[in-house]
Amino acid sequence: MHHPVLIAITGGIGSGKSVVSTILKVAGYGVYDCDQRAKMLMNSDHHIKEALTGSFSSEIYRNGTLNRPMLSDIIFNDKESLHLVNSIVHPVVRDDIMKWASQQSIVPAFIETAILKEGGLDTMVHEVWNVTAPIETRIERVIKRNNISRDKVIERINNQQELGDCNGKRVVSIVNDNTTPLLPQVVEAISKFL
User: Fold this and answer.
1) What pLDDT is attached to residue 36?
2) Beta-strand runs (E) in the chain
3) Which of 3, 5, 64, 186 can pair with 108 through a Cys bridge, CB separation 3.0 to 4.6 Å?
4) Residue 30 in 3-state DSSP?
5) What is the CATH class of 1-30+104-194?
6) In terms of pLDDT, which residue wins out, 13 or 175?
């Protein structure tokens, strides 16, 4: 199994990680969307289903599909339950990333994640692209995208960890503020791998 160069695309909610990912996909690069894949794995992976059912209740799945509202209610105000769910899901996601990465023919390959350190992904990547935007821009984007209140968006932003040190990895800042051209930043960041 070969291990390609992996780059993390991270940033807070509403920063524009998905826009950067879309640019890369259009350019032909592989992008692993951690959030989407984790949701899929939570519905399909036998180990995860067994562990969540054993940890919480058989009601956590309805007709084989994860009861997301129930799980959200459990983990929202209970850090221990959140930690438990993460300890079940994150190792399966990391294994899935390695399988996916070994099949990528174009280097580098990318991992889009909002939880770089919490997911233990900072140890797997060669470099981190941190997508940033002004706080008001982020709030507006999330209100528009998710149709939720300003207070809910601020709560989510406050619950996210700051990036801080990335296990000694090089961090490239990509500004997605609706003013600074995005494409030249992505081209420059990727150019050293070409």
Assistant:
1) 94
2) 6-10, 31-33, 61-62, 65-66, 109-112, 127-132, 170-175
3) 5
4) coil
5) alpha beta
6) 175
